[in-house]
Protein 1
Amino acid sequence: MRAVALLLPPGVWFALIYLSALVVLFVSAFWQVNPFTTEIEHVWTLANFKTIFESSAYRTIALRTIGIAAAVTLTDAVLAFPFAYFMARVARPRTRALLFVLILLPLWSSYLVRVYAWRLILSNDGVLNWALHGLGLPSAGIAYSNWAIWIVFSYVWLPYMVLPVYAALERIPDSMLEASADLGAHGRKTFRRVVLPLALPGVVAGSIFTFSLTLGDYITPTLVGGSSSQFIGNVVYSSVGIANNVPFAAAFATIPLVVMALYLVVARRLGAFEAL
Amino acid sequence: MKRLMLAAAVLAVALSVPAAFAGGNGLPTTIGKGEGSLYLVAWEGYTQPQWVKPFTKATGCVVHSKYAGSSDEMVTLMRQGGGGQYDMVSASGDASLRLIYGKDVQPVNPALIPGYKNFIPALKSPPHNTIKGVHYGISLQWGPNTLLYNTQKVKPAPTSWSAIYSSAYKGKVTVPDNPIQIADAALFLSKSQPSLGIKDPYELNQKQFDAAVSLLKKQKPLIKKYWALASDEIDLFKNGDAVIGASWPYQTNTLRAAKAPVADLIPKEGATGWADTWMLSAHAKHPNCAYQWLKWVSTPKVQAQQAIYFGETPANTKACAIMDKLSKGSCAQYHANAPAAYFNSIKFWKTPVADCGNGKKDCKDYTAWQQAWTQLKG
């Protein structure tokens, strides 16, 4: 009885705010806007989805978004793993606390401030090129490009990868590593056969964050992107805020929804939910 | 008749007769007591405290403004949620007709606006806000879209729009993220390829439209970034990421104030431009404050303040003297005393419609412009 009372408020919130919003989103994707009056016509149609699948521009945007999200996830996994390993298994408690602070420190400042900071770093007369010139190297010239988007996303979402990987690595009992050594496996083999499989759910859990956060973002592409840098979020934003075409925005927004649903199914198979 | 109505209006205000929103043609003949607040959709820089604070003090109308980044956004804001959210919008010519034909705005009575009689003749009843003698708003300010360049990096100084279509400054070009940019390409083509027969850059048949879009496609690899906000372009020029691009005088002013080595010009092909109108929503909840605002922004002083702040040209001719008083030489700098020929040399933004006005209905309408732009940006 008490459990029901405790679960009721979040349950109602979830059903009303979250699920009903998703249902409305999905339903409105099958409506259309009258091009002249821009009023929504409640007539069932697949026209929005047809536009998305038939237009190469929208296909490119969807693939670009998913591709960069995957690249960011991979980058963060590669960067986060050694860091988390050091924190969990090598560092002394005091160093570990310091590293925690360093990882979490950027989260204390606004996301926008950090993205704007990157804009200054990468710009033509920015810190990056200044440093490269100092070393006698040519300018990088990656400001306002998809490279810049990749770098900035990898930076801002890194803490979300480090923490679950750290949690997974920390949970590996020392006895398992000792057993592996006793049975004659050297360091590299222990890492590959014992540590990595046990840490994988943590990596997958982290990848849910980095992948979904990148997939849904539109601010970073707007601020640091170049002339071909639109994300799904940008199209949704301009469909609602500029073209007043909510049904088309809803239709396009179902793409990340479907991608994420598939991703979560795979993540579940890999045991990511036990590592959260 | 106009003078008589004006006299009646002045008399009525003087006697503070309560609102009488039912003139002979449905227009108000007096301005009643303010409703206490006013909700505006405006271009960034159009509702500065400099002239909004004294307005609130004088009329009791508290101004709430929402900045929009493009004409499309303005139209959307005025229509969202049934359209009663905002009282007024500072619409450019490419939004005003859409708002009029969409019945989102209502006619206003210029006789209630004292500053109106001193407007330059071209902005008293311009085709972008006056239909068959009915005024859907009061003109505000106007200006050209200029070619902005870095004086140290771009040598010799450009004289033609070809500078942003040729590969000389590849990867260092920036243009606005706005479908109306197609008109800029068309304007350039009207001079560089006369065989296309482009007369009006907003009235393009299929062939002319395709030529403009393909020019923009060729331009895309040269572009560093399509800028959405004026501040984006300012950053690009400040940090050396862009050295040349399509701009507004506002960016030039701001960059010069920050000591950036930039200059702007109207190239030999001419320029597109904007002429803005304050329009009254068809569902305005604060019409008296709205009329007070129209009166206020049409006064020579506010016209001069805004002209200097934004770097545009006031509609009110009496603003010139005040501009020079506020900042020496600014009247001439912003063309407030320029002859009518200067005004006529600018191709002002207007909404592209299928009906080209030549009896044929084969022009590409704005929906086609928007689609082409989305495809182009990809």
Protein 2
Amino acid sequence: MVYYISFILIGIGIYGFLTQKNLFKHLISLTIIDTAINIFIISLGYISGEEAPIYSKYTPIANFVDPLPQALVLTAIVIGVGILALGVSLLIKVYEKYGTLDVEEIVAKEGK
Amino acid sequence: MRRFLSALIVLGLIMFFISTLPLIPEFGKASLSKVSRAFIDKDVNGNGGNIQYGVSKDLENGAANVVTSIVVDYRSFDTLGEVTVLFTSALGVGIILSGYKRKKFGREPNFILRVSVGILLPLILLFGAYVFIHGHLTPGGGFPGGTIIAAGILLLYLSNEEFDLSKTVKFVEGISGSLYVIVGLLGLAVSGVFLINFLPTGVVGNLFSSGIVPIIYILIGFKVGAELSGIVAELHREG
């Protein structure tokens, strides 16, 4: 069941977000959750035994899975890439200021 | 202790998700909604259907790839917003990382890298262009094609320290973004609806078919390629 795979991936992402202290690992956890939700949305539109929604030489007649979730996920993937790039650039700035990406070390340096 | 608590929270969440499973259709047994049916039949008025590859012509939308027809025709305004989001994030990366001097490694890149870039780069660019030109016929389109081109540009940055493309990137990005809006405004002038498909749609499955869809996907390919190359350049400049 693809549903369970996406649930487990969401769980892994949240677990990583809660336990890790490195900000870069937080970002990767968020990306894992993003991917898991994309998998979930696509699997919602799957109809077993049917083809990808493209008219071609091999699938000349409409016998397709739901194309709407795929179109929405295409948007979500692109926005995910944008967020990832922006997050990484913010992390570069954080590392430049504090010299570390560890949350606790950053808090200790702020408190000084 | 912290790990245990986190694992407990995660387990609870997964149990919650699993408990909501009866509310959604079983995997593989989804049914097409009315909207999806209309998009597949390429007629939003509900009297389409029976489309055949290479036979049907002059439909509402002639793209063989149904996802492309949704993304670039029916929901084209949404895609315009999506491209704007990507532009904003590229702009944000540029602003956040501005003021850095280009880091130099002071070392010649590997001989194998330099030579293989010369062989691989034309092939990578050709493949990217193929993917976004055939976006309405095959899986792919402007977004993956642009990403492939950006990967080629990354190879150029890695193999040559003096390489700089930031001016060209901004130029290409601005031109293709404005052309997208201009195509939309042309639709407004011709048929009275923003971003309407005002060109003849042709036979399903031909390269020259489906009106403005290939044009817009080529523009999106250039824009996404330029934006991602810009992000790659900014992050690479950081070293």
